[in-house]
Amino acid sequence: MARFEHTVTVTALDRHWFEEAAGHVVDLFDASREQGGEILLPDGRPVHGLRLLKGRHLQSGAQYGEGTGPGEEVAFEATVLREWRPSRTVEVESRLAEESMSVRVGVRVREPRTPRALEVSLDGHNPKGGSLYRFSGRAKADLHAWWAALERPSSAPPAARAPVIGRAVHRLGKARLTVTPRPAEHGSWRVCVVLSVRGRWLLRPLAAVGLLLARRPIERGFREGVDSAAEEWSEMLAELPSLHGEALRADIADALTEPPESAESPEPLTEVL
Questions:
Q1: What is the widest separation between alpha-carbon atoms in the chain?
Q2: Cα(117)–Cα(107) distance, rounded to whole angstroms?
Q3: For the chain, where are the alpha helices, taking DSSP H only?
Q4: Phi, psi for 25 (deg, rounded to 5)
Q5: Whole-prediction pTM value?
Q6: Under 8 Å between Cβ of 82 and 93
Q7: What are the φ/ψ torsions at residue 102 (nearest 5 degrees)?
């Protein structure tokens, strides 16, 4: 087994703002209605890039998506609502089918108005391929534990259990990723990311040799990936509006109904939901 660890300092996300924004998003969708396939917010404006294709709006089994024109590479894309209970659980499942790959992504949010946990699952395979073309992954972010870890004194040891844990499985190997935050100076966060990789079954010896020979480039790529993610995180937070109350709700409604200025095509459905 190979283990890689890297720690970065990132801009902190304000918990109050995050939970308030999440509450506004949930409330806007909960008060929305469907008309002719369009999803209308309470003010009557349609949500950009989102249409009801099948079922009843905000009911289990409702299918959302957009049609694809002839000759387009994507054969089928849809988001299915599995559960809509804003005070307890919201769960959606997105499916993307292409000629060479079929992918299913599931997302579940616990207590979405003030998010307590986020669970993500990923399963993919090549319909024409064998087991080497199959993969799966699971990740869970315990947001309650995340905020609790940031309330600990900076001199205290890190939390015994990482708030974010992800696992990926392939025929050739397994990977485990953990993310643990700690408070840092000037209100920022110190985030430790740990990646563990190992081979499976009879391939373990071969994987061990391969990881030994390629350890340095793998470690360098891992560190660069974490650094890049940290930079993108800070850039994203810098673009978030410093609004609250009705002003924040109105800004979110505008973002949901207006196409991005720099986009040439509609946002993917997974980003809308």
A1: 61
A2: 11
A3: 15-30, 143-150, 204-213, 215-239, 245-257, 269-272
A4: -60, -45
A5: 0.83
A6: yes
A7: -125, 125
Is 198:174 a contact under the CB 8 Å cutoff?
yes
Q: Which residues pair with 80 in a beta bridge?
A: 63, 93
Lookup result for tokens 């534990």: 145
CA-to-CA distance for 97 and 151, rounded, in angstroms? 43
Closest CA to 161 of 183, 144, 136: 144
Structure tokens at 50: 């989102």
Region 230-249 average pLDDT: 94
Gap between the Cα atoms of 213 and 237, Å rounded: 38
φ, ψ at 258 (rounded to 5°): -110, 135
Q: In angstroms, rounded to a whole number, what is the distance separating the alpha carbons of residues 36 and 44? A: 13
- CA gap 131, 125 in Å, rounded: 8
The span from the CA of 113 to the CA of 88, in Å, is 8
Strands 102-110 and 2-10: unpaired
DSSP one-letter string for 11-51: PPPPHHHHHHHHHHHHHHHHT-EEETTEEE-TTSPEEEEEE
Rounded Cα gap, residues 55 and 78, in angstroms = 13
Rounded Cα distance between 79 and 52, Å, is 10
Of 200, 176, 189, which Cα lies nearest the Cα of 230? 189
Three-state SS at 186: helix
pLDDT per residue over 128-148, tens digit each? 777 677 889 999 999 999 999
Between CA 51 and CA 66 the distance in angstroms is 6
Residue 60 has pLDDT above 60, yes or no: yes
Q: What confidence tens digit (pLDDT) does each residue in 150-200 have? A: 998 877 777 789 999 999 998 778 899 999 999 998 889 999 999 998 876
